[in-house]
Amino acid sequence: MKKAFGLISALIVMLLVSTLLVAVAKFAFVSAKHTSDTYLIERGELFMQSAIENALLAIEGYDRKKNGNCLKYIHFTDSDKKFEANVTVLRYYCYNGDCGCSDASLVKSIETPFSDGYVVLKIVVENNLSIFKKRIRLEKITLQRP
User: Fold this and answer.
1) pLDDT tens-place string over residues 18-70
2) 37, 56, 77, 112: which has the highest count of C-beta atoms within 10 A?
3) Best CA proximity match to 146, nearest among 97, 85, 99
């Protein structure tokens, strides 16, 4: 009877140890996945900030008077082809409405020269699904001055 009790207790201990090992392995997998997802999101946010700055440079360098319209859409892709950003200019704020844009829905007339030149941007950053298995989509609407 003592031998049977020892065999049962050994099986119970082995069952408890294997359950503990499965829980540790699951935790390690979830932790590694969380770390890679956090890295991917942080890299997307950094690319978004870069896209905002590049969009402001593009808006500043765009000659609205010469072309007769305002810059509305800008597309960026990073050098590794891992992320792409679509920037949409939602509104231009111009002193007395004098922006040189033919599209009146983009222009908001303001009456103080202090806010002249501000733009409202909508930025959407997405990752390349052929490289990454998880889809990341980041959106931001921001008021900027070029």
Assistant:
1) 999 999 999 998 888 888 888 889 999 999 999 999 999 998 888 777 767 78
2) 56
3) 99
DSSP, res 118: -
Q: How far apart are CA 74 and CA 84, in angstroms?
A: 11
User: Which pLDDT does position 74 carry in this prediction?
Assistant: 94
Query: What is the three-class DSSP state of 134?
Result: coil
Closest Cα to residue 133, out of 42, 36, 51, 48? 36
With beta carbons less than 8 A apart as the criterion, state whether 31 and 23 touch: no
pLDDT of residue 86: 95
Residue 81 makes CB contacts below 8 A (sequence gap 6+) with 128, 131
Place of tokens 């099986």: 11
- Residue 124 CA to residue 44 CA, distance in Å, equals 10
Give residue 126's identity as a one-letter amino acid code: E
Structure confidence by residue, pLDDT tens digits, 97-129: 677 777 777 778 777 777 788 889 999 999 887
